[in-house]
Design goal:
Layout (H helix, E strand, L loop, with lengths): L14 E3 L5 E5 L5 E6 L2 E6 L5 E5 L6 E10 L3 E17 L1 H4 L8 H6 L3 E8 L19 E3 L1 H4 L4 H14 L3 E7 L11 H5 L5 H8 L6 H26 L21 H7 L9 E5 L9 H18 L7 E5 L18 H9 L6 E4 L16 H14 L11 E8 L2 E7 L5 E3 L20 E5 L4 E3 L1 E5 L2 E5 L6 E6 L10 E3 L8 E2 L4
Parallel strand pairs: 1-7, 7-10, 7-11, 8-10, 11-12, 12-13
Antiparallel strand pairs: 2-5, 3-4, 3-6, 6-7, 8-9, 14-15, 15-20, 16-22, 17-18, 17-21, 19-20, 21-23
Helix pairs in contact: 4-11, 9-10
Length: about 500
Amino acid sequence: MANVRLPKIFSNHMLLQRGLEAPVWGWADAGEEVTVQFAGQSKTATADANGSWIVRLSSLEASDERRDLVVKGKNTITLSDVLVGDVWICSGQSNMEWSTNSVIDAGTEVSRANYPEIRLFDVPGHTTSATAQSDVPGGSWQHCTPQSVAGFSAVGYFFGRHFHRETGVPVGLIGTNWGGTRIEPWTPPVGFRSVPELKAIADQVDRFDPTTEAGKATWEVHLKNVEAWIAKTRSALAAGNGVSNAPQTPGFTGGGDPTAIYNSMVHGLVPYGVRGALWYQGESNGSEGVSYFHKMQALIEGWRKVWGQGDFPLYFYFVQLADFQQPNDNPAGGDGWARLREAQLQSLTIPHTGMAVITDIGAANDIHPRNKQDVGYRLALWALRDVAKKDIVPSGPLFKGIKVEGSAIRVHFDHAANGLIVGARKNGLEPTPEVKDGTLKRFAIAGEDKQWHWADAKIDGDTVVVSSNEVPKPVAVRYGYTMNPEGANLYNKEGLPASPFRSDDW
């Protein structure tokens, strides 16, 4: 007679997602009837042949009322202090994992982090699995306090803090991140299958996925090998002889292997109701270009498919990589992370996405910028526009297109309707001030010969006009298209930096 059990994502102090039919699920005896009660609702399900059950609560309004969620089967589980608001997954590599106690002015930030309506859940450890696990390795919901936030994702915390301050809506943050990881291990199998350019990876994954024909065949062979090993081992033990190692479990288990981290550190969270995901990753894929865009498609659409929230979009906001290493004075650029940032900019073509540009807050000698406050703030602007429906500009200028005008090129941008400015070098956490009559830097221009030259660039309303005496018939423009675009200083009136870009595809 098994007791009803819940996955670890359900605990005291949890936060349920508003605005959708919030799933509550777990395990019990096959055929056991399970009832879930919350906020005046009562939903009942029957455990299937495998002992799995799920109910979906009717859509909930945001609420800071501390209520109990009660699950009844053969036993009763009562979870207390449950709020309703917006839940966000905070994932990626080390810059997302970077803790609040290691940022600029960490002492003050941590000491002031008392937000009882912000709740934190951190998936512990760095684990992988060859197959999708039904639960994450550990974790429990905590109030946001100086003690709990100190080791939590700084980007996640500063995002949640700004959104909560601006809206009053309770916020839940789920940290699942791992420094030094590539994007592929975070991606579910269905993600790779949805992108034709990634068929080679999808085929690799399918060889071990027990839900596919190829995967079933692999596991059948493995079962036969295990059965043969068991028989051989029994005989060896009976004879007092040594035994051989058991057959190795098939599948990807390395930290860089496709699906391996998703299987262990993400799948067990599905289908917990969420508003969206925050993603800060790319350094470990830094040598890539358009292939990273295809992998972002696989990650984003893969997560959306496994969560299956239908018309309730899973927003996906990500961080474009910061400036890093020594500047390159070649006007052509194209070195280091230039193409990776371009792939990230291209990822904005995926619906319900947003990108924080941070090429003004990095450090040439540190791959981990300590200013995580501005990163979280810039991500939160997208959520304030999309989720809170505030009439704000969520981003700095994003390249829209060019128009050749004689010996000059006019560059058009999104998110520049209120005008553009030349910004001063950012000083810590201070807002970026405008430099009156300042000179734009890091613009380059080329003609049909494809030879790049540094250009004069002047702001004209919500556009930039670029020219060079060395290029009488220009055809293309680049801006900040280099590993470290030091000096790039185009901002919008809101004080947000423009993303690096190029108009060509050479």
